[in-house]
């Protein structure tokens, strides 16, 4: 293996280059390489300044996350930074791409920082359930002040080079050749004999807050979001607070202790699992780098309802022109009015510039003429969820769409193979299942039909990423992965009501678990009438939900559903309690006390069981894919890592045994443990182990 860090000279300036693709993560050899080269440059009398830079697409994007949890190897990043701190020659970090986490901490061991335009700098550790562990919580406030540093550390979001310059995080933005510019900067420092101040000695940006420490809590109150159960934000605040009164060396030790505690905790392990699972999910067996995706320059969406409008917005948001087709002028006008309203809200919130609104809207071509899709490279159908309607539409699409166009269906449940069969280009057909609201939710289930062409699948993945979704490839079955597992949960939620729980008990247990909302609040938001109508068509009944719908309680839109609403705020309704108790009597179910623990087991264990069946059937490729789906589509808390990862932490034997009991108690065959779950439980295995074995 070649050396990941090298040094060359430009006259009296040493240029140390980190070259560890893809993102220059600070694995052991990199840390050692930086240290050795910094020492060599420091001790070489002919070298007067040092530039530290990164090769490839980015400067160092952080510590090597794959090393976390393994025995640490010296030199640690802290040692590297401490050595840099003591260099008596100007040290300049020249950064581009995404200097993040340990990468940004490394730059804060230098006297100066210069950045290429377009660089994004940040401390994203919080997103991995961590805090910066190599001085970031002490040095960033010293450079930019607490008011800027605290939200950066708590959100984990990076800032632009321009903002970094304004805040004092970087000293210059270099247009053109970054390294040449950094060398020039170094020479100007030498020529001007600029004083070399270490970041650790900077106190100026902290003076005001030290004089008025109550301000710290005001800043915290402004930025600390509700972080139900999360450990890292509290640790971050604790560490940053040390800048008020603790000498930096001591504070860095405390920061390190906090970091080390978090790194071995379940929350960070879960968040790191999600980080890698999300990236794995885009890798599909049989679709290698040799499969070139088709080029997508124009899109078309059929249906301007809530889903169609939201899907179309995703394309316009990234500058791809999109034709949007409806059957009537009225429906089209309504759809476009909603889209415009959504964008106006973005303008009000400041996420879209007022002058860009008309440009954004100009990317839409609304029409009632299906022929207008003829030049689209991808056509996404988002019409009513009904097989005959979809088939009829695909029959027509085939005659109009240009050769090679990807034909996608946004079905949530239906058989993509059956839809594909009506065309003579079954290879072009793929499912692209968006989640509502489609312009907001990040999940995209890409449904691979049995005949979907590899390049069509690759295109769907690339398009998904381009429109800023997290794509996960799944196979064909009723409800695919997400909704199939959701259905297992919904059945149990209703049963719990009949057995003795109330909506607020069930929802409360799930929000305490970490979901943003429980199933009944979600039903009220989506509209209870939607499921009711579809059940009526299928001739099935859901005793409680249907009784509510029959009483005109459709949820938030009618001000009453499982809860009573004033605006968006919900409160329990005694009428609903009575209605539920009556339903239990009608159904002959004796009500009893249901504990929070039982609610969690009854709702999530059957999901895990269904997830195991999904894996066994090959509908999902890896357990991590299921976790990503549940995180981005249904709000499963990231710090629990998704249902399959969470199941591993609970223990598969425990889950299997409880499911067996449930199957016996209720006679419900769905609770019989899946073959895969049984096998892993017997072997003392885990879903994670299964994924590792598959990858090996
Ligand atoms: N460690 C190890 N591997 C990493 C990594 C890291 N810090 N960052 C990225 N990678 C890997 C990814 O897993 C991926 O591998 P793959 O190709 O085998 O799937 C590859 O690098 C490319 O990553 P992306 O697909 O994410 O590439 P993008 O260009 O879309 O994004 C990025 C690049 C913005 C750098 C993004 O990867 C990212 O956000 N990385 C994590 C950054 C981070 O969290 N840094 C802080 C780490 S913790 C830390 O530094 C602790 C310190 O305080 C002590």
Summarize the structure.
With about 700 residues, this protein is α/β, with parallel strands linked by helices. It contains 30 helices and 18 strands. The chain folds into five domains: about 1-120 and about 160-195, Alpha-Beta Complex (2-enoyl-CoA Hydratase, Chain A, domain 1), CATH 3.90.226.10; about 125-155 and about 205-265, no CATH class; about 300-475, Rossmann fold, CATH 3.40.50.720; about 480-585, N-(1-d-carboxylethyl)-l-norvaline Dehydrogenase, domain 2, CATH 1.10.1040.10; about 595-695, N-(1-d-carboxylethyl)-l-norvaline Dehydrogenase, domain 2.
Summed up, the helix count is 30
The first-level CATH class name of the largest domain: Alpha Beta
Distance between the termini: 22 Å
In the CATH scheme, what's the topology name of the largest domain? Rossmann fold
Shape estimate:
globular
Instruction: Assign a percent range to the helix content.
Output: 40-55%
Q: Taking all residues together, what is the mean pLDDT?
A: 95
Main β-sheet description = 8 strands, mixed
Number of domains: 5
Secondary-structure-derived class: alpha/beta
Cα Rg: 28 Å
Which residue ranges are poorly predicted, with pLDDT under 50 across at least 5 consecutive positions?
none
- Which distinct ligands sit in these coordinates? 3-hydroxybutanoyl-coenzyme A
User: What is the CATH architecture annotation of the largest domain?
Assistant: 3-Layer(aba) Sandwich
According to CATH, the homologous superfamily of the largest domain is NAD(P)-binding Rossmann-like Domain
Number of strands: 18
Strand content: 5-15%
**In what order do the strands lie side by side in the largest sheet?**
11-10-9-12-13-14-15-16
